Amino acid sequence: MKANAAPLEAADVSYAYPGVAPTQALQGLNLRVKENEFLAVLGPVGCGKTTLLRIFAGFLRPTTGSVRCAGSGIDGPGRERGYVLQEQSIFPWMTVRENVEFGLLAQGLAEPDRRRVSDELIQLIGLSAFEAAHPKDLSAGMSKMVEVVRVLATDPSILLLDEPFGALDAQTRTRMQDALARLWERRKKTVVFVTHDVEEALYLADRIVVLSERPGRVKAEFAVGLPRPRSLETRFSGALLAMKRQVWDALVS
Amino acid sequence: MTGAVKIRRAVIGLVTVAALYAFASEIGRGRLPDRVWLGAHYVENVQLLPTWRSLAEEGTFLIESGILPSSVAVSTRRVMLGLLLGSVAGILLGLLTGWAAHVESLADPWVTFFRYTPALALLPLYVVWFGYGEASKVLLIATNVAMITLLGAQHGVRGVPRVYLDAASSLGAKRWLRFRKIVLPAAFPSIFASVRIAAGLAWVTIVVAELIDARMPSLGYLLALSGAYPRVPSMLIGIATVGALVLAFDLLALLVHARATRWMGRAG
Lengths: 253, 268
What we know:
The complex is a heterodimer. Chain A is α/β, with parallel strands linked by helices.
């Protein structure tokens, strides 16, 4: 790793989905993610948020421009960049425990070592009673939390979260946000969190970048100075509501 | 729907048809001719619709003489062997062609070319290649089974949702681990469904295959012979036996399937 290199950096990144009429998803996007920062990427539907995250995750290569992880080029998925997909991706044929331990299995860890890590994480999300259950017996929110800790199990330095709570109802969503905020406060990591929900971005992030409509590029940037740990009070604080207005204006302008 | 309800409905279905048959055969007896043309000859004393009583008598004879049990044993053995060989070959090829994209495009035209080749068309060729013995019968079944399971495995592998493979790569899983832990379990339901269909087809094939070097004991020859007399009760018993064996195989397959896919959320 080069000294002072950002954990993630996108320089003048453009991406076009190939096809008869290529779709330009990103155009000249510049972004530097700081060490241990919780960054929210906010933007309208179809602005290329997911494309950006998939480029960081290593599943797509930018058409032009470059992306770097800790100074070196990204040329494929890697476990230092934990990625939680937008779609439900918990493995339905594995139990909760097997899901959480999958990344450790891929590293070749022995069963007792895997178990130590998974015990702790499953307890952290309050699913100890469900460790031997299959995903069909879990709610959507529980499944998503398993996906998040499955990624945490391998202890990646960077977390890429793609609208992880997008498909949940408002209440579950709030609970999951709280759980994620607690997790992050406990073990600091560099997080890139993609969402289209302004309040979610404000509640969770240190910094918010707003993308423009397609083709996406950074349109505005906000530092969220709200105190931590954040709580229900934060959600209804005047400071958050004032920022919500600003961010909202930037989003729709 | 619970298992008990399903079984009850299946039994009701069977009993109803059996009762209707009894009714039809009792009325039909006496109204149907007992003298029919078969080829260039008149054949006497043919029961076109045998009653339950004569079916029972014929059944007792076939069982007590040992003809039916030994035929079932011999034919079942051939089916099992062919099913096993064909499934192993078909599934392995299907997994390979489904998972390795470059092999897929090499094999695809051949699979399409051969997938609908009827067993009867291959039969003379197999006799020439593998002789009149067991080999050509078992291999004929294996070929048919392999075609179906190949397609099932291929379809299963190609249908593995992208998200699972992406999530696994992101977690650091290499190709072989992804294959074992993601592709195989995700493809299993499709593979298994194809084996189930292939098992039924294997029984269809064996009856045809046993026409080569036809000799007792075998279900195929039993059917052919009862056709030559003609002896309708034997024919019906032969057909019912094959049907019962297919049903038994299918039940066994369903039990294995239910155990192996308990992870799948099944509505009702």
